[in-house]
């Protein structure tokens, strides 16, 4: 029995995975910034986020293990569309597509090495929110925590980072197991008229 308990312990340990968190654009990440983590192959998700002065309608799909694709429909709250608003169609809007390629996932080394990904945000259409970045994410499974550090250009300008902690993940309190404490350094230059299209951005 003792041998079976040891085998069971190591099986659980090997298969233990920290849940992936998603940012407001439904990409693996934190609040606004991305991480190198991704969902499971074949996943599809839809979501909505209200991040003033924008309302975002999002779609994501994990086509392959190392490829995450997402699309966003952003509504500029309080900004009239010069063509459609006079016809009663509401605020100005913008569509975007994003792609993230994992060079290495942290799960592939059982969290012994960091994952590394490169990403392209808003690479189609008007590209008003475009950015390119590289990010590394280290998962500390014993502490139920992950830390990311990355560098971006255009809308994500310079170094950015994030940390996510799930302190109650292994407790018996079912309703607290998914509680996530998150902090990030957002490298978006919101005061730049070139990078922030909304006048109240």
Relevant terms:
single chain, 201 residues, mainly beta, nine-stranded antiparallel β-sheet, 9 strands, 43% strand, elongated
Task: Report on this structure.
The termini are far apart. A 9-stranded antiparallel beta sheet has the order 1-2-3-4-5-6-7-8-9, with no helix packed on it. The model has no long low-confidence stretch (mean pLDDT 92). The protein is built from 1 helix and 9 strands; from the N terminus they run H-E-E-E-E-E-E-E-E-E. Helices cover 7% and strands 43% of the residues. It is mainly beta. The protein has one helix at 2-15, and strands at residues 44-51, 54-64, 67-80, 91-104, 115-121, 131-140, 145-154, 158-165, 181-185.
Q: In percent terms, what proportion of residues is strand?
A: 35-45%
Globally, the shape reads elongated
Average the pLDDT over all residues and give the rounded result: 92
Measured as a percent range, the helix fraction is under 10%
Taking Cα atoms only, what radius of gyration do you get, to the nearest Å?
19 Å
Kindly report how far apart the N and C termini lie: 62 Å
Task: Give the topology.
Layout lengths: L1 H14 L28 E8 L2 E11 L2 E14 L10 E14 L10 E7 L9 E10 L4 E10 L3 E8 L15 E5 L16
Antiparallel strand pairs: 1-2, 2-3, 3-4, 4-5, 5-6, 6-7, 7-8, 8-9
Q: Quick gist of this model?
A:
With 201 residues, this protein is mainly β.
């Amino acid at each position: 029995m003792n041998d079976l308990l040891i085998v069971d312990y190591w099986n659980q340990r090997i298969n233990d995975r920290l849940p992936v968190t998603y940012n407001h654009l439904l990409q693996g990440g934190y609040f606004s910034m991305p991480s190198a983590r991704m969902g499971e192959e074949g996943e599809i998700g839809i979501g909505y986020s209200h991040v003033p002065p924008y309302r975002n309608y999002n779609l994501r799909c994990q086509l392959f293990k190392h490829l995450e694709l997402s699309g966003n429909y952003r509504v500029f709250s309080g900004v009239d569309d010069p063509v459609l608003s006079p016809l009663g169609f509401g605020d100005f809007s913008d569509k975007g597509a994003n792609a993230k390629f994992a060079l290495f996932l942290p799960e592939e080394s059982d969290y012994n090495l960091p994952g590394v990904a490169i990403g392209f945000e808003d690479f189609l259409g008007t590209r008003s929110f475009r950015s390119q970045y590289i990010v590394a994410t280290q998962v500390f499974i014993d502490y139920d925590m992950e830390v990311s550090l990355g560098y971006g250009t255009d809308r994500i300008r310079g170094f950015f980072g994030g940390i996510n902690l799930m302190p109650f993940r292994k407790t018996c309190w079912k309703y607290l197991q998914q509680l996530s404490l998150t902090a990030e350094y957002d490298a978006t230059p919101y005061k730049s008229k070139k990078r922030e299209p909304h006048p109240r951005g």
